[in-house]
Structures are given as structure tokens and as C-alpha cells.
């Protein structure tokens, strides 16, 4: 591990984390990104803005979310103590809302009235529609046609919240294509539109500001852990789609050298099959969606199709800060297959009475192995990034049960 | 002198406007591209912009998106396109060829390798839509070794300060995006283009072409009055697609370029 890196000082002024990140967009968006960056630089230290953000997190989202000692699961696993950071208990059921609250506030302070967002599983779309409803802004959510079918429940939730859901029919018709389409909308409506990106990807300053908004997870977890156990955890585990819940947990611990970090990617049918969504485990660096990062791509630089049982992890890229943390060795990135994630989904539900999102189930599956490896007397914090209600249809289908 | 500079100098000497058609390599199939390139020149094209297909063409409207998808069905690669241009050069040593595409295929090949092969193939410039000057320094170093121009975009949202900065780094010509939107958009506003062109021309002597939303001889002539050349993309790509769909000869699609040529020549001189 490299020493004496001040992690808090990244990204640099132009949005780079080492060779990653940056601002790879067409000229039309450069000024909009400059404007966003300037607004964020001004507001992130603005007392009124921060007070409003903190108040929304407390009174609307329901923070702080608990740090829960999973006593029975720890006992049955027979290893390190397992703690769950309960982002599933947030309003709208996932960590995504921490970020949408922050970005919608930015939109409000910048005087933008129209919100656009991309979504895969629909969680970020729902979280965007939710904050837009509350602030009286119009909300347009781009969603791959494939995902519109897979996540019908969330599509209807967004519509009830007053958002327009636009099915995206280009490319692979999933999250990456939804992001392409959102970028196209933004270029067209750049004057009055605020694009709420749902993860720590995209052009600078998005990876930074989404990280900052999500870092509430790690700040709380760190304080709660010290309070409840008297010391820091030995390891952190979080699933990685674009990487927002993982960086939110990791970032406040980066300077704590004793704390190990594991990002868990979607192994799909198995990384060796090629049908997965694990760019850090099996990809190569490239440029997509405004930043340089690890990608799933072929020899010609075309982005390849991904697969995961969980729509929220089904993305061929990853936030640039993770690419950098991987290269410098500060965090480790591993993968968990569909089957292992499904087992963890069932296990936590039965043993703790907590039904996790399939995304979060990837973190649970890896943490279980890690708990045994670390052994008794150690402790692990898992980011339980969301609840599993949205996935009941998927699991039922796998069980051969038809829900009406 | 580079082929691009020579071309613009010659056009200026004749008070003519550059006509720059854009097609996607490998659309509708690989065999069509080379004959299309030659035919476009025959119909009056001054410079060819060859689109390098990408799986995620973020700046394109539906027409060109579909062209990228059609080309990728044939697994058209950057390498293959360089070979194609090398073949074009065996018959045509005069018409500048610019590759237009996205960063990732070039990243994947590696900047040095790309620049070397592109130079050898007879490419004159590259326009990478998602690589603004801020990120282009390493690529520029590679391109400079092989006398390739990096062509940058300017947009209605570009501030005067940025225009000056971008113009200082650009080579060959500048590509002015006529409107806030994606390729093929229908909302081109000639007065706004004029305003933008005035702002650009205040900062640079480089030739400036205008693209996005130029569909026919009428829009081309109205826009050409205030700039050095026009780029015709979606309208041509759509004609190619229609010819292909109807089982006609795709070379027929180039009559659009002939018509625009005639109209442009009628207003110049
Ligand atoms: C519950 C949950 N966890 C994780 C993710 C993955 O996103 P990220 O890696 O940005 O946290 C999603 C995305 O939809 C999600 O809904």
C-alpha cells in the first residue's frame, strides 16, 4: 500500500484521480460542467446550503441510519463480528437518496427547474422523482427498455411520483444506454436542466460531488462503530455498481490505514464466462460517460454487454476513484456470482429478518467469506445499500413462482 | 503544408465554401464505404469526415446512432478503417480525410500507435467528440509527431474566453456546432449561428466549418454565408440508409451532396 497519500485531496483541480476521471464530454457540455463545478465549490462550504442538506437528511431521509450488529448471523457464520450499515432504512429504500437530495438542492440553488436522471434498477430514478416531487420540479427519467420490463414496479412508482419515464431503445437498452440518452437530453436542454447522475461516474465534478454527498454513510458508520465497539472496524465491504455506496462508506476511512476495504462487483454467471459486470476485476482502462476508468470492452474499444441478476450493478464502467484505489492498492475489488448473491439474499432474510437488495446481497456474500477468514475478535462493516422489496419479482421468478 | 491547410487555402483563393460530408465507416456494409468516399468526392466534396463507429455514441441523434449500430454489426474496427483510408489514398491523394469518433477506440489502440498508423494511412485530422482540449494534451503530442491535426469543436455554449483557448490549440480547422443538441437536430437557427461565428472569428483566423442540422441545399447556403464550410451528416447518412433499405444503389444517396455543391457554388465567387 502506498503511504502518506492524502486521500481527501483528490481529485485534483481538473477532476483526476491519478490517470482516471477527468472530463471527457462534447464541447456543448463543458460550460455547463464549469457552471456546476463553480456552484458546488461555492455551496459546499456555504452554511445555509449545508444546514438545509443536513436537515433534509435528518427529517426527510431519516438519518442517521443505524449501525446494526447482526448477532445471530455472526454466530452462525462463526467468524468476525458483522455490522450492517442500514441504508435500506432510508426513505425510498436505498442509499441513492442521499445523493439525490444533495443534487436537487444544488439544482434549486442554481435556479434549474427541470431534472433529468438515468436509472438501471429504478432506485435512483425513484429517488430523483421523489426529490423532484418535493421541490416541485419536473422530472424525466431515462431507463433502458430492458430495465423498464425488469423493474416494472419502480417504473410505476416513478409515474405515481409525477415523473416521466422515457424507455431507451438504443444499444443494449440498459443502464449505459440510459446514461447516453440522458447526456443527449442534457446537451439539448442545457440551459434549464440539471442532470442528477446516480453514481460516482460521469464527468468531473460528478464523481466528487456524489462521493461527498454519499460520504455521510462512512462518517456516521465510523462514529457509530467507535461508539459501539470502542474501536475502528477491521474491514469494510460494499457492492460496486458505479460505486457510490462503496465510496460513501470507504471515503471517511481512507486515511485509517488499519481498515481494509473490499468492493464487490457483480460476477454474474462467473467472471470466467464473460457474462458479468465486473470491470475492476476483469476489465481494462478506457473512456466512457465522461471519465477515464476501468471498463468492460473488447479489443477494438467497443463497450461490451454486461450481465448481473441485479439491475443496479449491471454497468460496464465504474467510478474513477475506485479505479485509482484499485491501482494504488488502497482498496481491493472482488466479485460474487449471481447464485452466491441469491443465497445471501435468502440467508439474511431468514437469519436476521432483513431482506436486502440483490445489489447489497453481493456485499453480504463476500463478507460472509471474509468474516470466516478474519476470524473471531475482528469486525466488519457491510454497507446494506438497499432493501429487497424491489427484487421480490426477480427472486420469485427464479423460484418459478408467478406473482400477479 | 498539410492537405487540410492546402485545401482551405485553395478554397479561399476561389471564394468557395468547403463541403464536408460525413458518413459512418461500414454503414450499411463494409464494401460500400470506399466507393461512397470516391463518389462523394466526384459529387463535389472537399473534405471527407469518416465516422468511426462506437457502441455508445453519446453526441449523436437517432439517425447516426443507428448508422453506428449497423456498422458494428459488421465488426468494423478502427484498424479496418485505417486500412480503408490507405486504400482510398491509392487513388486520391488530394482530398483531406478526417476521422470523427469517440475517445475509447483510440485509447484502446494507444495514442502513439494510432497516430503512427493514421499518419501512414493518409489521414489528415482527427475529431474526437468527447475529448475536449483539456484532456487532449497527450493525444496532441502523438498526433504532432505525424503531422495530424486535432480538430476541436466549438458550441453555442462556448464562452469567448474558451473560444480563444480552444482556437489556440486547434489545428486544420474548427468545427462549430450550430445548436444545442445532438446530430440531426431540427432546430438550427441561422441568426444564432451568425452570432456565434462572429464571436469565433474575433478570436481566430483558422477556417471554421459549421455542422449539426444542415439538411439540404437551402440550410447549407444560408449557413455557408457566415462560415468557411458546411458539414452534412445526418441527412446524408439517412439517404444512405434509405437507399439501402429500398434495395437501391447506396451511391445514389450522394446526389444530395451534388445538389448542395451546386447551391454553394451559386452563392460564392
Ligand atoms: C440498493 C442498491 N445498491 C447498490 C447500487 C449500485 O450503485 P452504486 O454502486 O453506485 O452504489 C444500486 C443501484 O441501483 C442500488 O439500488
From TrEMBL, chain A:
One term of GO molecular function: tryptophan synthase activity
Recorded GO cellular component terms are: cytoplasm
List, alphabetically, the InterPro entries matched. Answer: Trp_synth_b_CS, Trp_synth_beta, Trp_synth_beta/beta-like, TrpB-like_PALP, TrpB-like_PALP_sf
Query: Top-level EC class, please?
Result: lyase
Q: What are the UniProt keywords, alphabetically?
A: Amino-acid biosynthesis, Aromatic amino acid biosynthesis, Coiled coil, Lyase, Pyridoxal phosphate, Tryptophan biosynthesis
Origin species: Litorivivens lipolytica
User: Which superkingdom?
Assistant: Bacteria
Assembly mode: Tetramer of two alpha and two beta chains.
The coenzyme or cofactor needed here is: pyridoxal 5'-phosphate
**N6-(pyridoxal phosphate)lysine modification, residue list:** 96
Question: Which spans of this chain does the record mark as coiled coil?
Answer: 26-53
So what family is this one in?
A: Belongs to the TrpB family.
What this chain does, per the entry, is described as: The beta subunit is responsible for the synthesis of L-tryptophan from indole and L-serine.
EC number(s) for this protein?
A: 4.2.1.20
Lineage start: Bacteria, Pseudomonadati, Pseudomonadota, Gammaproteobacteria, Litorivivens
- All copies of the Tryptophan synthase beta chain-like PALP domain together span 62-386
Q: What is this protein called?
A: Tryptophan synthase beta chain
Catalytic activity from the UniProt record: (1S,2R)-1-C-(indol-3-yl)glycerol 3-phosphate + L-serine = D-glyceraldehyde 3-phosphate + L-tryptophan + H2O
Q: Could you tell me the gene encoding this protein?
A: trpB
Q: In which pathway does it act?
A: Amino-acid biosynthesis; L-tryptophan biosynthesis; L-tryptophan from chorismate: step 5/5
Which Pfam family, any one of them, does this sequence belong to?
PALP
From TrEMBL, chain B:
The regions listed as transmembrane in this protein's record are none
Q: Where is the active site?
A: 49, 60
Which pathway, metabolic or otherwise, does it act in?
A: Amino-acid biosynthesis; L-tryptophan biosynthesis; L-tryptophan from chorismate: step 5/5
Q: Which domain of life is it from?
A: Bacteria
Q: What class of enzyme is it?
A: lyase
**What GO cellular component entries does it have?**
cytosol
* Gene Ontology MF term list: tryptophan synthase activity
Q: Which reaction does it catalyse?
A: (1S,2R)-1-C-(indol-3-yl)glycerol 3-phosphate + L-serine = D-glyceraldehyde 3-phosphate + L-tryptophan + H2O
* Gene3D superfamilies, per database record: Aldolase class I
InterPro entries annotated for this entry? Aldolase_TIM (IPR013785), RibuloseP-bd_barrel (IPR011060), Trp_synthase_alpha_AS (IPR018204), Trp_synthase_suA (IPR002028)
Query: Which Pfam families does the protein's record reference?
Result: Trp_syntA
The protein's job, in short, is: The alpha subunit is responsible for the aldol cleavage of indoleglycerol phosphate to indole and glyceraldehyde 3-phosphate.
Can you tell me which family this protein belongs to? Belongs to the TrpA family.
What PANTHER family does this protein's entry cite?
Answer: TRYPTOPHAN SYNTHASE ALPHA CHAIN, CHLOROPLASTIC, TRYPTOPHAN SYNTHASE, ALPHA CHAIN
Protein's name in the database: Tryptophan synthase alpha chain
The protein's organism comes out as: Litorivivens lipolytica
Amino acid at each position: 500500500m502506498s503511504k502518506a497519500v492524502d486521500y481527501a485531496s483528490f481529485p485534483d483541480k481538473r477532476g483526476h484521480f491519478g490517470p482516471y476521471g477527468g472530463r471527457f464530454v462534447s464541447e456543448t457540455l463543458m460550460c455547463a460542467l464549469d457552471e456546476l463545478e463553480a456552484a458546488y465549490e461555492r455551496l459546499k462550504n456555504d452554511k445555509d446550503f449545508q444546514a438545509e442538506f443536513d436537515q433534509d437528511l435528518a427529517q426527510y431521509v431519516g438519518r442517521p441510519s443505524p449501525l446494526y450488529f447482526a448477532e445471530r448471523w455472526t454466530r452462525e457464520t462463526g467468524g468476525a463480528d458483522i455490522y450492517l450499515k442500514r441504508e435500506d432504512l432510508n426513505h425510498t429504500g436505498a442509499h441513492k437518496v442521499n445523493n439525490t437530495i444533495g443534487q436537487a438542492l444544488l439544482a434549486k440553488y442554481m435556479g434549474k427547474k427541470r431534472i433529468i436522471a438515468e436509472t438501471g434498477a429504478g432506485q435512483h430514478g425513484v429517488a430523483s422523482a421523489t426529490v423532484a416531487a418535493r421541490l416541485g420540479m419536473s422530472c424525466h427519467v431515462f431507463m433502458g427498455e430492458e430495465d423498464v420490463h425488469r423493474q416494472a414496479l419502480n417504473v410505476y412508482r416513478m409515474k405515481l411520483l409525477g415523473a416521466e419515464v422515457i424507455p431507451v431503445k438504443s444499444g443494449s437498452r440498459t443502464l449505459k444506454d440510459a446514461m447516453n440518452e440522458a447526456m443527449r437530453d442534457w446537451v439539448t436542454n442545457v440551459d434549464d436542466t440539471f442532470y442528477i447522475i446516480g453514481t460516482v461516474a460521469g464527468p468531473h465534478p460528478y464523481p466528487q460531488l456524489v462521493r461527498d454527498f454519499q460520504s455521510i454513510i462512512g462518517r456516521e458508520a465510523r462514529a457509530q462503530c467507535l461508539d459501539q465497539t470502542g474501536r475502528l472496524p477491521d474491514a469494510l465491504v460494499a457492492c460496486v455498481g458505479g460505486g457510490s455506496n462503496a465510496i460513501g462508506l470507504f471515503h471517511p476511512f481512507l486515511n485509517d490505514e488499519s481498515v481494509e476495504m473490499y468492493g464487490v462487483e457483480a460476477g454474474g454467471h462467473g467472471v470466467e464466462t464473460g457474462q458479468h459486470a465486473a470491470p475492476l476485476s476483469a476489465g481494462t482502462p478506457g473512456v466512457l460517460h465522461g471519465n477515464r476508468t476501468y471498463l468492460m470492452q473488447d479489443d477494438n474499444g467497443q463497450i461490451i454487454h454486461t450481465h448481473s441478476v441485479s439491475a443496479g450493478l449491471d454497468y460496464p464502467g465504474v467510478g474513477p476513484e475506485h479505479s485509482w484505489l484499485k491501482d494504488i492498492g488502497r482498496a481491493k475489488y472482488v466479485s460474487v456470482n449471481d447464485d452466491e448473491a441469491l443465497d445471501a439474499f435468502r440467508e439474511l432474510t431468514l437469519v436476521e429478518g432483513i431482506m436486502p437488495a440483490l445489489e447489497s446481497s453481493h456485499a453480504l456474500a463476500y463478507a460472509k467469506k471474509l468474516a470466516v477468514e478474519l476470524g473471531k475478535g475482528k469486525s466488519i462493516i457491510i454497507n446494506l445499500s438497499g432493501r429487497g422489496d424491489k427484487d421480490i419479482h426477480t427472486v420469485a421468478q427464479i423460484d418459478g413462482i408467478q406473482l400477479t | 503544408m498539410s492537405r487540410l491547410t492546402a485545401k482551405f487555402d485553395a478554397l479561399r483563393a476561389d471564394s468557395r465554401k468547403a463541403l464536408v460530408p460525413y458518413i459512418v465507416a461500414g454503414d450499411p456494409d463494409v464494401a460500400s464505404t470506399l466507393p461512397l468516399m470516391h463518389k462523394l468526392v466526384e459529387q463535389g466534396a472537399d473534405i471527407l469526415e469518416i465516422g468511426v463507429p462506437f457502441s455508445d455514441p453519446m453526441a449523436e441523434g437517432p439517425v447516426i446512432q443507428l448508422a453506428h449500430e449497423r456498422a458494428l454489426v459488421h465488426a468494423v474496427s478502427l484498424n479496418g478503417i485505417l486500412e480503408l483510408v490507405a486504400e482510398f489514398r491509392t487513388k486520391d491523394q488530394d482530398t483531406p480525410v478526417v476521422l470523427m469518433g469517440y475517445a475509447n477506440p483510440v485509447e484502446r489502440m494507444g495514442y502513439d500507435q494510432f497516430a503512427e498508423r493514421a499518419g501512414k494511412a493518409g489521414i489528415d485530422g482527427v475529431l474526437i467528440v468527447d475529448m475536449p482540449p483539456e484532456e487532449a494534451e497527450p493525444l496532441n503530442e502523438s498526433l504532432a509527431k505525424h503531422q495530424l491535426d486535432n480538430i476541436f469543436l466549438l458550441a453555442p455554449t462556448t464562452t469567448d474566453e474558451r473560444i480563444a483557448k480552444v482556437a489556440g490549440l486547434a489545428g486544420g480547422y474548427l468545427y462549430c456546432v450550430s445548436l444545442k443538441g445532438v446530430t440531426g437536430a431540427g432546430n438550427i437557427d441561422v441568426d444564432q449561428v451568425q452570432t456565434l461565428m462572429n464571436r469565433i472569428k474575433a478570436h481566430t483566423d483558422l477556417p471554421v466549418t459549421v455542422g449539426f442540422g444542415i439538411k439540404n441545399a437551402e440550410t447549407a447556403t444560408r449557413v455557408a454565408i457566415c462560415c468557411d464550410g458546411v458539414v452534412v451528416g445526418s441527412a446524408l447518412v439517412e439517404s444512405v440508409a434509405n437507399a439501402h433499405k429500398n434495395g437501391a444503389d447506396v451511391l445514389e444517396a450522394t446526389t444530395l451532396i451534388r445538389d448542395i455543391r451546386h447551391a454553394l457554388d451559386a452563392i460564392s465567387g
